[in-house]
Amino acid sequence: QVQLVESGGGLAQAGTSLKLSCAAPGFTFTYYTMAWFRQPPGKEREFVASINWTGAITDYADSVKGRFTISRDNPENFLYLQMDNLKPEDTAVYYCAARYHTNVQDMKMMTSDRNVYWGQGTQVTVSS
Q1: d(C-alpha 96, C-alpha 107), whole Å
Q2: Which has the closest alpha carbon to 93: 127, 43, 59, 51?
Q3: Strands, E, within the chain: which ranges?
Q4: Half-sphere exposure of residue 108, counting CA atoms within 13 Å on the CB side?
Q5: How far apart, in Å, are the Cα atoms of 107 and each of 17, 86, 90?
């Protein structure tokens, strides 16, 4: 069973950094393309970044490109999102996601896909 547990959210000032972690115990991590999504207050969930099983291929939403970095630690079954130069519009609940053997570029279309596994989410609030 795929279980995803996010941590690392909190309150940050604009221009500073946060790093989110996602623990993925108990399943074959390398079989899954991983991603981060977020849901801003009052809005629908949106794609943030995705990464292939080796970590060599990544994809980012235009709104975070150059500021956020997605990475994974396969031996430890962890996914990360380094968020730099945070902006108030980055305020959202951030979700870790996993989908079996999926093209990295296709993850951005999976916000409502029934084959995506989701974590419980972690709140990130950026003040100006």
Answers
A1: 12
A2: 43
A3: 5-7, 10-13, 18-23, 32-39, 46-51, 58-60, 68-73, 78-83, 92-100, 117-118, 122-127
A4: 10
A5: 25, 23, 20
SS3 of residue 40 by DSSP: coil
Residue 71, strand partner residues: 80
Please state the φ and ψ torsions of residue 108, each to the nearest 5 degrees.
-65, -20
Are residues 20 and 80 in contact, defined by beta-carbon separation less than 8 angstroms? yes
Sequence-distant (≥ 6) Cβ neighbours of residue 109 within 8 angstroms: 47
Angle at 91 between CA 66 and CA 17, to 5 degrees: 50
Q: What is the pLDDT of residue 1?
A: 81
Give 6's strand partners. Answer: 22
Identity at 100, one-letter amino acid code: Y
pLDDT in tens, 69-96: 999 999 999 999 999 999 999 999 999 9
Sign of the torsion angle spanned by Cα atoms 55, 74, 94, 35: positive
d(CA 128, CA 116): 33
Check pLDDT > 90 for residue 27. Answer: no
